[in-house]
Specification:
Structural class: alpha+beta
Number of strands: 7
Distance between the termini: 69 Å
Radius of gyration: 37 Å
Bound molecules: adenosine-5'-triphosphate, magnesium ion
Oligomer: single chain
Largest sheet: 5 strands, mixed
Shape: elongated
Order of helices and strands: HHHHEHEEHEEHHHEE
Length: about 350
């Protein structure tokens, strides 16, 4: 049975009026007085009870409904009036209910996002692994189909298969490193070393590629002393990935500038290239795993989109954040700080 507030108010009003008249009958038997008393006390009680229910109880219940309907629309803007002792129990219940449900809803949304991310990640990994395996398989099948007879062709195909499998090996290594770092399984081993020395070593490594593309790499050291405390092999990887990108995504004959400057806590580093640049809408994504601005552009260079994700993880493990500024078709600058005492 649905309890209507109006009927409930009338019921209480009639009970109160009857009791009042019953008491009054002990004093007087005058029917007019008894009737007027009954009418006044019934009306007054009805008004009081009805408005109490309507305006206090139902208003609170309506608030609960409106909070729930906001939650349904994923609007989490209501702020619970926490621990306010003046709140009625219904208001407190409303707050509790809202806080609990919004917490759960946000958890569900987060889990849904993670599920999408996991699915995309699996699809990316399988795609990236499938391609080199397929290519290497192609070379080997061609060899088995008769190309083995020709020594020159077979050597060429074997070399190509080997390069493809090397790429696959690098990809798997990158993936393992990334997941281990994300899972906190790799801890940084800090040591004090000379950053300029490390950049000199990298210059030697990239010299051939730079020459091939007629590019130049400049190191501007404006620091008083070039020493930092960090995990040297990992920082080498950071610079390797950044310089590798700067070469890959630059036009031939371009320049790359690495600038080191003192900052209050250590060294401020900038790696700038005068290359293709990154479109503004892609900038926020380039540190995501497997993200490539333009699939075809990167495919010709053979990148898998893991380089910057690794850079970000390594720098975060050193307590540093990486920033990027880019002008499409002109230049890209990656910058970060490496504190003197990082870990
Ligand atoms: N210096 C740069 N100039 C222009 N675009 C860049 C630059 N660095 C990165 N990008 C863009 O960001 C994307 C992600 O870079 P990232 O280094 O993570 O992957 P990748 O170079 O494609 O592959 P990998 O580094 O794994 O071999 C690149 O595909 C490229 O589109
Ligand atoms: Mg890269």
């Amino acid at each position: 049975m649905v309890i209507n507030p109006r009927w409930l108010a009338w019921l209480i009003a009639i009970c109160v009026a009857t009791i009042t008249v019953a008491f009054l009958s002990l004093i007087t038997r005058e029917s007019t007085v008894m009737f007027v008393t009954f009418a006044i006390s019934a009306s007054a009680t009805f008004i009081l009870v009805y408005f109490t229910i309507e305006f206090i109880v139902l208003r609170e219940v309506n608030e609960v409904y409106s909070a729930l309907s906001k939650l349904k629309k994923k609007d989490f803007t209501i702020k619970p009036k926490n621990n306010n002792p003046t709140l009625s129990p219904i208001q407190q219940l409303n707050d509790e209910l809202y806080a609990y449900t919004s917490g759960k809803q946000q958890e569900i949304d987060q889990l849904k996002k993670l599920e999408i991310y996991r699915r995309e990640f699996l699809a990316d990994v399988s795609h990236e692994l499938k391609t080199p395996i397929f290519v290497a398989q192609g070379y080997i099948e061609t060899l088995l189909d008769g190309a083995l007879e020709d020594t020159e062709v077979s050597e060429k195909f074997l070399r190509k298969a080997s390069v493809t499998l090397d790429g696959l090996n690098n990809l798997v290594q990158d993936l393992v490193t990334l997941s281990q770092m994300e899972a906190g399984m790799i801890t940084m081993s800090p040591s004090i070393f000379n950053l300029c020395g490390l950049l000199g070593e990298l210059l030697d490594i990239f010299e051939k590629r730079l020459q091939e593309r007629n590019m130049k790499l400049f190191i501007h050291n404006n620091t008083s002393k070039c020493e930092i405390e960090a995990d040297k092999p990992r920082i080498r990887q950071v610079f390797f990935n950044l310089i590798d990108n700067a070469i890959k995504y630059s036009y031939a004959s371009g320049e790359i500038h690495i600038k080191l400057e003192n900052n209050p806590k250590g060294v401020h580093i900038e790696v700038r290239d005068h290359g293709q640049g990154i479109p503004p809408e892609d900038i926020e994504h380039i540190f995501e795993r497997f993200y490539r601005v333009e699939k075809s552009r990167t495919k010709t260079e053979g990148g898998s989109g893991l380089g910057l994700a690794i850079v970000k993880q390594i720098l975060e493990a050193h307590g540093a954040n990486i920033a990027v500024k880019s002008k499409l078709g002109e230049k890209t600058t990656f910058s970060f700080d490496l504190p003197a005492q990082t870990l």
